[in-house]
Amino acid sequence: MDSPVGMERIHPLQNRRGASAHVGLTPAPPAIRIALRAGGDALSALSMAIGLDLPRAPKTAVVNGDGDRSVLWLGPDEWLLIDDGENGEAADLLARLAETGVLHSAVDVSHRNTAIMVTGEAAASVLAAGCPQDLSLKAFPVNACSRTVLGKIEVVIWRMADDMFRVECWRSFSDYAFAFLSEAAKDVR
Amino acid sequence: MLLIHCPYCAEERPEIEFRHAGEAHIARPDAMADLSEEAFQGYFFIRDNRKGEVFERWRHIHGCGRFFNAVRNTITDKFLATYEAGKPKPDLDALKAQKGTSA
Amino acid sequence: MSAPHRMTSGANRVAGAGRLTPARTARFTFDGKQLTALEGDTLASALLANGIHLMGRSFKYHRPRGVLSAGAEEPNALMGVSRDAARYQPNVRASVQEVFDGMRANSQNRWPSLAFDVGAVNDALSPFLAAGFYYKTFMWPRAAWERLYEPNIRAAAGLGVAPTEPDPDRYASRYAHCDVLVVGGGVAGLSAALAAAESGVSVILCDEQAEMGGALHHEVGISINGEDGFEWAQKTARRLAFMDNVEVLTRTTAFGYYAQNFVGLTERVTDHLASPRSDQPRERLWQVRARRVILATGAIERHMVFPDNDRPGIMLASAARTFLNHYGVAVGSKVGVYAACDSAYEAAFDLKRAGIEIPVIVDTRDGPGEGLLSAAADLGIEVLTRHGVIATGGRLRVSSIRVRPIGSSDGGRKIAVDALIMSAGWTPAIHLFSQSRGKVTWDAENSRFLPGAYAQDCLSIGACNGTAGLQEIVEEALASGELMARATGAEDVPKLSVAVESRAEGRSQWTSGMAGAGEGAGADSAAKAFVDFQNDVTAKDIRLAVREGMHSIEHVKRFTTNGMATDQGKTSNMHGLAIAAETLGKSIPEVGLTTFRAPYTPVTFGAIVGHSRGALFDPVRKTALHECWETNGAIFEDVGQWKRAWYFPRVGEDMHQAVARECRTVRETAGLFDASTLGKIEVVGPDAAKFLDLMYTNAWSSLAPGRSKYGVMLREDGYIYDDGVVGRLAEDRFHVTTTTGGAPRVLHHMEDYLQTEFPDLDVWLTSITEQWAVIAVQGPKAREIIAPFVEGIDMSDEAMPHMSVREGVICGVPTRLFRMSFTGERGFEVNVPADYARSVFEALWERAEAMGACLYGTETMHVLRAEKGYIIVGQDTDGTVTPHDAGLSWAISKKKPDFVGIAGLRRSDLVRTDRKQLVGLTTKDPRIVLDEGAQIVADPNEKIPMTMLGHVTSSYWSDNCGRSIALAVVAGGRERIGQTLYVPMPDRTIEVEVTSTVFFDKEGGRLNG
Ligand SMILES: [Zn+2]
Predict the structure, then answer these.
(1) Cα(C210) to centroid of ligand 1, in Å?
(2) One digit per residue, pLDDT tens: chain A, 189 residues?
(3) Interchain contact C686–A (C-beta under 8 A)
(4) At the fourth CATH level, which superfamily is domain C678-768?
(5) Exposure string (b/e) for C380-406, b if CB count within 10 Å is 16 or more?
(6) Which residues of C touch A109 (CB under 8 A)?
(7) How far is CA C127 from CA C87, C536, C565, C575, in A?
(8) Which of 577-636 (C) contact B at CB < 8 A?
(9) Are B8 and A133 a contacting pair at CB < 8 A?
(10) CATH (domain of B56)
(11) For chain B, what is the domain count?
(12) CA distance C87 to C97
């Protein structure tokens, strides 16, 4: 795949901002995302290719030293790779994964998803308006991540810090996600 | 809302992350093309729909995405066990005995 | 404390009594009358303070009613409460609703006024309105039910009226997780919560009242840790609220106890506020998952069942005590007492000490607990033991009672009163325990049901567990809190102690009491002795039900409607049960208890709906190109959750004209269309082709990379499940498309087979529906439009024939370019990463528009594909259509040993030749456009019911054909081509000819045109 040139990505949540005294809602910048599927045999080769150890423990994300690339465990053979895109294109990563020669599936989903950063002391409470999982630090510590439900849509929630979550959803659901979180943000104390 | 233990996520998760997927341990016949109409009926349409402990399939569709099997009592709604797809049917009496003593 | 405040907040305020602040007043109206309350008053206490006992009319007989209770169990005092025109709530319990400044309250179920109500004629007609009258009286004639009986019954019997304006309030929801949930904030609940919280585990404590304290609202003379009980409760609640691991929720009702300690709470956030902030939700629904639950829900006092026990001014003793001790309101100046339980004595003593005359305590028993008689004597109160109240007088408020010794038959002695307070004993509030599927046990000694075997990880403590005595309750509560804390992992559990002292302790026997009808309301009596006030069920009705053959309590309940009103029989169930048991000659446990169900008290629809209103009712999905269509004047239609561009009217065009123009332009020049909503799945792995061979009827292994094919997916039973074009990008990589509506279920279906039937295949599925935006460019000039923007792809017919796919670059961004057509014209579908879609569209459209192309929407897409006979799954198929029926036999591979549906497809019924088959229909009059769904017959003169051969599935005006066209499924349809059939409509019968499904360009030459 050739590299995209000359065209800016238009974010599905362009110009959207939301905040209250206790929580901030911000569309995350565009990112490279790869849906990675593989069996146990392939993990070390794939980890080498992306420079990150694919987590084997459920509900876990790992982040590289520079903080610009992370991999989220979504299922026993499924990961979501998120890269900030500063150091190359999705195609470069796909090519590097292909070069490993090990059995896997890597699919570019950079534009399928978008993300909302939920920050502040009330971040977990805002998510709890629609997410049925226990988001306490005990049950959902920093770098816990999970595909789950927010109101009426599916999302991937990743706790990046005590008071910071990244909420990934498919782009056409991002309007709903943003509106839902904004509405919920009005109700936190 | 039930809590369901996903054998792949290795924890209990809220029911709305899951989707029920019918009776478990009904293998698709190998020689589909040669299946008699009656055998097809038995395979595809006829279900036990028991009252009490049932073996059933669930999918953690809004979680890890995996199908798995469960033993649930349809009267009490209690799960006796959940286990990975492809694993053999657990022994019901042993499960009941085990639950009986631990509860 | 003095005259002025009495003047402002009601003549019946008692100086020095109660916990409200005299200076803080709130103005409200009742049936239009301006009244003044104190902050913290309930509607009931404020009305009583103003001397108003008449608060409503009963459901069936329209009898005047006052308030019975001071709590959630209230059956009588239901009102409409409004803040403004749009904020109106019917059936509000006056005993729960707090007054706020500016509140308007109205009585219900009366006309023209509360004091004079025409419907009260029902009371006189009551011999005809006995239990079960619905089922008997109005059976015949049947037609009268709809026209006459039901409307009239509904008008005469009923509660409040639903508001007509949309609800302007917001409602919030919250999932919460805790180690220990404590329901009920009385002495027991507070102590348990404290014990659990001090160990560090997470605790949620909720109580339905405005303040914690529970029975301490009425129970004075209790000191806890050396201070007044109610004060201790407030301090304890504050202490808990300050702890990080505790959430304290007042005005919050635990209404439902579901599986695995999932408990629903509704928190009433603003119903008590004069001017709520705009960001405050009216209510907040808490869905709590607790590892352990402690139920400290207390007990509910029962009324006495005696003739005319429903006059305004007759109420529970605990209610009178609450009104006095908490709200500082005297419920009367001359208050009679009717008791089968000692607690009524404490109420009498409190009232007497406040200066209220107590003419008599009537006790059905041989005598009360130790010391009470002498205490009564000390206060100068006459006590009549072994006596009953056999009648009451007064029209809109009780004015007298008639009492006589139990078992005597004389007319009794008349005593003047202006209120009567009563207690038949206390019913443990086991509702939530019962909802949790716990088994109740019968406590024969005290005639009550108590929690027995637990079904979930919970504990009942205090009065709801039958525990009597404050010291015992506190010890039980602390122990339960500690136990639950340990059970949820606390290691360091401090030992707490709470010292209690009660003035009444050791004197009153709280567990005594009676259930069932009292003196004067026995089996031989025709009196109206109410068991269930809210549904107007009398002791006589219950006996009648038993006589009519209802021997199970569940049948008695439904026949009489006892306990079926919105109060769910909190005060009436035990009485009803006792009367039924007595009539049946059985014991109470033999007759059994009805099941308690959620909700404990009514829950608003708003609380259940929560955030899911307006824009959040259902997600609205827009494609990445949505704004492009908006800019260009599209009218949108809803397709599932998607907004899709429907058509693009130009100035002066209606839909018909716009669609006709779009249809012509695509075939003459070209058109651009948004195909982004179609589902897309990337199928990757060495076994990808093998897997698709199993999932589709077609053969994929033989498809060369770079080529694509139309695929048909079946369910195992042989019916069409979905369809779509599948392109092979590489040996091990396919780009599968699905229908718009089918996208999620097709992926689920494929995952199901992959994970559970074919787990050995090395292949993975990834949804890419939203990764790629799709601009379809269709029409003779399609290639010319896009060619200048495309890099790295040879688009000549030789290099890229119809049904090919290439990866390359368009407008500088990656593309998956499909050469395909759903119009019958030369066509391309340009897939680009969604964030680039708008830029790519703008480039393409600038050129296309200049070349005379148009934008087209889903309507034109439908017409164009129908002209070519291309089916739409879900419109031309309905889940009972096989590929053979649909004319798609060519898409079924004959060589494959297996695919999903191969066996189903061979079933004898599915290979019949007379099955409904997809055909074309042309009307004899080309101007007539058939109705989709219209039925088709062979003989228009056949008598009804006619033999229906099938129905119209798609029907349009086709400008390109110059006539109407239709697709239909018709029995043995392909054999009927050329025949004339008929479509009977209400106003005419339309003659049609059966044709092939292809109406335009039958040879298909335009695909390369
Ligand atoms: Zn899972």
Answers:
(1) 42
(2) 334 445 789 999 987 888 778 899 999 999 999 999 999 999 999 999 999 999 999 999 999 999 999 999 999 999 999 999 888 889 999 999 999 999 999 999 999 999 999 999 999 999 999 999 999 999 999 999 999 999 999 999 999 999 999 999 999 999 999 999 999 999 886
(3) yes
(4) Aminomethyltransferase beta-barrel domains (3.30.70.1400)
(5) ebebbbebbbbbbebebbbbbbbbbeb
(6) 766, 768, 771
(7) 39, 13, 21, 22
(8) none
(9) no
(10) 3.30.2270.10
(11) 1
(12) 14
Q: A131, A187, A188: which to substitute to probe chain C, counting the most C Cβ within 10 Å?
A: A187
Residues of C in contact with B86 (CB under 8 A): 756, 759
Q: How many CB pairs below 8 Å do chains A and B form together?
A: 40
Beta strands in chain A (DSSP E): 18-19, 24-27, 32-38, 61-63, 69-75, 78-83, 104-108, 113-119, 145-150, 153-161, 164-170
CB-closest option in B10, B11, B63 to A147? B63
Q: Which fold has domain A15-30+111-189?
A: Gyrase A; domain 2 (3.30.1360)
Amino acid letter for position C921: L
Bond before C90 cis per omega within 30 degrees = no
Q: Indicate yes or no: CB of C903 within 8 angstroms of CB of B40.
A: yes
Q: Do B9 and A58 touch (CB under 8 A)?
A: yes
CA distance, residue C896 to nearest chain B CA (Å): 9
- How close is the nearest chain A Cα to the Cα of B2, in Å? 11
> C176 in contact with A at a CB cutoff of 8 Å?
yes
Contact assignment for B62 to A133 by CB distance below 8 Å: no
Tell if the CB–CB gap between C751 and B67 is shorter than 8 Å. Answer: yes
Distance of CA B44 to the CA centre of its chain: 16
**Structural domain of B95:** 3-25+50-99
Average pLDDT, 10 consecutive residues per value, chain C (1009 residues): 55 94 94 96 98 92 95 96 89 96 91 79 74 63 68 66 87 97 98 97 98 95 94 98 98 97 98 92 97 97 96 98 98 97 94 97 93 94 97 96 94 96 96 96 91 96 94 96 96 90 63 86 91 95 94 90 90 94 93 87 95 95 97 97 98 97 98 98 98 98 97 98 98 98 97 97 98 98 97 96 97 96 97 97 97 98 98 96 97 96 96 96 98 97 95 98 98 97 96 98 91
- Read off the tokens for A120: 């502040």
| Residue whose tokens read 């080498």 | A48
**Residues of B with Cβ-Cβ distance to A128 under 8 angstroms:** none
Q: How many C-beta atoms surround the C-beta of residue C256 within 10 A?
A: 20
Given CATH 3.40.50.720, say whether it is the number of domain C171-299+429-502.
Answer: no
Choose which CATH entry (3.30.70.1520, 3.65.10.10, 3.40.50.300, 3.20.20.70) describes domain A31-109.
3.30.70.1520
Residue type present at position B29: P
Cα separation, C916 vs C224, whole angstroms: 82
